[in-house]
Amino acid sequence: MEGLQQICLRCFHLIPAETQTCPHCGADLAAFAARDYADKLIAALGHSLSEVRMRAIIALGWRGEGRAAQPLLELALRHPVDVVEGLAVVKSLAGMGVEGRIALVALAERHQAHAVRETAQQVLRTIRHAKH
Known about the structure:
The chain is mainly α. It has helices spanning 29-33, 37-44, 50-63, 69-78, 83-93, 97-110, 114-131, and strands spanning 5-7, 14-16. It has 2 domains: 1-34, no CATH class; 37-131, Leucine-rich Repeat Variant, CATH 1.25.10.10.
């Protein structure tokens, strides 16, 4: 059996537990571990497993992290065939204030999946009506 292992919080490779610098991406693991929780969630949007990305999308939405709006938009555009993920991004963006609305407009205009574009438009209409 191999020694204890950990997962690099930046590139998600499996590495030896005692490693302080990831041999795959060069990340300083202590510095990454000390980062803000929202920053870690935003970094998780780059994970190769859709389940990990989905958890990060949902958590960022619950937190209303406006600074996550652009990374969420980029994620949805990067994975256009994952409609479920795209719809989760729309839902999370809905609670992110101005930054979220800007990203929703971009999704409504640019996402390849009709369902994501339409849902983004519906959310934007709902937000507009709630303001009046």
